[in-house]
Amino acid sequence: MNIVIIDYGSGNLRSAANAFERAALELGLTSKISVTSSPEDVASADRIVLPGVGAFADCKAGLEAVPDLVDALTDVVITKARPFLGICVGMQLMADKGHEHVETSGFGWISGAVTALSPSQDAGPGGAGPRIPHMGWNRLNMNHAHPVLDGLGEDPFFYFVHSYHLACENEQQLHATVNYGQAVTAAVGRDNMFGTQFHPEKSQSLGLKLITNFLQWSP
Amino acid sequence: MLTVRIIPCLDVKGGRVVKGVNFVDLRDAGDPVEQAKIYDSAGADELCFLDITASHENRDTFYDVVARTAEQCFMPVTVGGGVRTVEDIRKLLLAGADKVSINTAAVTRPEFVREAAEKFGSQCIVVAVDPKSVSAGKYEIFTHGGRTATGIDALEWVELMGAYGAGEILLTSMDRDGTRDGYDISLTRAVADRVNIPVIASGGVGTLDHMVDGVREGHATAVLAASIFHFGGYSVGEAKAYLAAAGLPVRPVEPASSEAA
């Protein structure tokens, strides 16, 4: 299996690569995990992972700065329908558009826009009011069952760090939320694509479980 | 609901842990990666490595520690100590750190925090502040382990750092650090109520009640501790159980990611 983690200058991808290597090892998969910005590699991938940290507009600009990369991504995800996982801003890019600092168009794969979190006053664990970024471990509330979210047990806690979220307009595409003084979108998906606002590569054993689910997923 | 993060902190000097858990079954108790794996399996929510190497000569050793930890522990890692330039931050992030803590360099040149946040994103920029009480209800920022006064008011400082793009404040009371008398609650609360970014309470924790107080009374979103875990006879799991019994939200202890394979 040829797994591609797309590198477009958005932060360190070593953690993500390490976690996917560990998950593949546990499954006994003979897989090649590449961290790459090459459109050829992306177009020929069996599974595609799009990470992302920082601002929505910067990430979009970073992707577009690599010639033919967005076209290759669209081809492999939409035309070839290969399994896709977006993480954090990589997930937010699946939206119609983002509103972080400036309005920027996304891929338009998931209905909705990326908007600033506006938690209510009682959001903090110490009762000290909402704090942005939403940073730390929060428990998923499952909305629709999905193979990628399978077998996560009674307490599916994952690690989040973000200030914006994808306000999903299609309830069928919203798979999980967390409560942070508001319902925060945690996981979205449709067809062969899935996205998590949280970081599975930083979420210890449950994160590895989710990654193994993704590697085994046959949409 | 967002849970209270419990963050063990390891002091690293020349690539070796200075203060750490003294477990007999450790192959090498001085190896930061071995210590990190213990805290990973104990259910720590995040790890903090502080490089206290005096010179920059051994810096590569520290990058190696961060990289080897990131290869084996799939959890958030914050690193700090001697972070002075954008290049320092880049190297630490490339080694596998998730967040980098800036202390003295922010005092020397506050714009550095703004530049770092713009370049790497607020989510990975932690500003460490070390205040000391100078008169009733008044706290001043100190550097060099509490030895050097700066004349900067702590509350004005944290507000400025938030405005400059810090994603989090790591607050260590210089009056309490090393005392085991508990966090400075009035300081913690004043800082936490002044900013709308997460605040990590640090310095002085000696009992599990101190952790509860840091969150409930001090309004901290996370608690950092070193000696209570290394020598104090408490495990992360016990701390979590205690906080949970006190009605604070915590994440249950999961099996270690470093032992999953």
Description:
The complex is a heterodimer of chains A (219) and B (261). With 219 residues, chain A is α/β, with parallel strands linked by helices. Chain A has one domain: Rossmann fold, CATH 3.40.50.880. Chain A is 26% helix and 31% strand. Chain A is built from 6 helices and 14 strands. In chain A, strands 2-1-3-4-14-13-12-9 form an 8-stranded mixed β-sheet, with helices on both faces. A 4-stranded mixed β-sheet of chain A has the order 6-5-7-11, covered by helices on one side. In chain A, strands 8-10 form a two-stranded antiparallel sheet. Chain B is α/β, with parallel strands linked by helices and 261 residues long. Chain B has a single domain, classed as TIM Barrel, CATH 3.20.20.70. Chain B has 10 helices and 12 strands. In chain B, the strands form 2 sheets. Chain B has an 8-stranded parallel barrel with strand order 1-3-4-5-6-10-11-12, surrounded by 8 helices. Chain B has a 3-stranded antiparallel β-sheet with strand order 7-8-9. The longest helix of chain B is centred in the N-terminal third of the chain and has 14 residues, at 59-72. Chain B is globular and about 45 Å long. The two termini of chain B are 30 Å apart. The model of chain B has no long low-confidence stretch (mean pLDDT 90). Classes of the chains: A alpha/beta (219), B alpha/beta (261). The interface between A and B is large, with 48 and 50 residues.
